[in-house]
Amino acid sequence: xxxxxxxxxxxxxxxxxxxxxxxxxxxxxxxxxxxxxxxxxxxxxxxxxxxxxxxxxxxxxxxxxxxxxxxxxxxxxxxxxxxxxxxxxxxxxxxxxxxxxxxxxxxxxxxxxxxxxxxxxxxxxxxxxxxxxxxxxxxxxxxxxxxxxxxxxxxxxxxxxxxxxxxxxxxxxxxxxxxxxxxxxxxxxxxxxxxxxxxxxxxxxxxxxxxxxxxxxxxxxxxxxxxxxxxxxxxxxxxxxxxxxxxxxxxxxxxxxxxxxxxxxxxxxxxxxxxxxxxxxxxxxxxxxxxxxx
Length: 294
Ligand SMILES: Nc1ncnc2c1ncn2[C@@H]1O[C@H](COP(=O)(O)OP(=O)(O)O)[C@@H](O)[C@H]1O
Ligand SMILES: [Mg+2]
Fold this sequence. Notes:
Elements: H1 3-18, E1 21-34, E2 37-50, E3 54-58, H2 65-73, E4 80-85, E5 88-89, E6 97-101, H3 112-122, H4 127-140, H5 156-168, E7 174-178, H6 186-202, E8 206-210, H7 214-220, E9 223-228, E10 233-239, H8 254-274
Parallel strand pairs: 3-8, 3-9, 6-7, 7-8
Antiparallel strand pairs: 1-2, 1-4, 4-5, 9-10
The site of adenosine-5'-diphosphate (ADP) has 10 residues, from helix 2.
């Protein structure tokens, strides 16, 4: 990478750090009871996320990524420490933190439009105003032709777009996404990544995106928070100094590959530690006479 790009990146991150902190974790700790023993899943996490940042949270399976997103969503109470949005403690779910989770489904008995209208109606908007807002967001995500369809009539990618619209219609400060594209095929997933980057660049939103896909994290993030397990702590925060707008072709560049190797080493080192059986996978005895594989 040449010096100009490096200087550009330095300036980009300096600007980010000057923005107000929107989410702050101070010694955030989560403990689960397993029978008679207690298990610390998040251990004294300290983290500051700035307004309009795109943060990806990665780490090996079971390291506490979803535990983190659930406490930020306000779905689970945390054990100790502090967790603040705009300086105010999180005490439960709120439309100011929109959620798009892989398994967090739409209301199957409501149409696309009714799903998106749900938030504004809950906040006391009139039917006409809720409908107008819902339409606006359905247009932004490009599903106007589907507004009267039910979730079962939509593809996986469309459902997640509706889920995004349903969250954004409430004008949240933070959009919290936990493996939102995990169930999509690679092509749809790539399109959704691009769609999400477009949305983020054009609206005032801070995104916290949990994924175990390292390419996805590098493609999307300003900063990657790499968690480690046992107990969940921040292993490293990586500034992704790649230019925007980004597209899938970026993955072929040496700069991307360099970051990928770095992130791989961080996460894989721990995967084997967490599952030692991976290192001892047995050699399969030959049980066939077919000779295509020598
Ligand atoms: N409600 C719960 N009760 C007890 N243990 C839990 C609960 N939720 C998560 N855990 C445990 O916490 C650890 C982290 O889980 P999770 O946050 O889902 O990991 P990740 O999303 O990184 O794969 C796992 O060992 C999991 O079994
Ligand atoms: Mg998870």
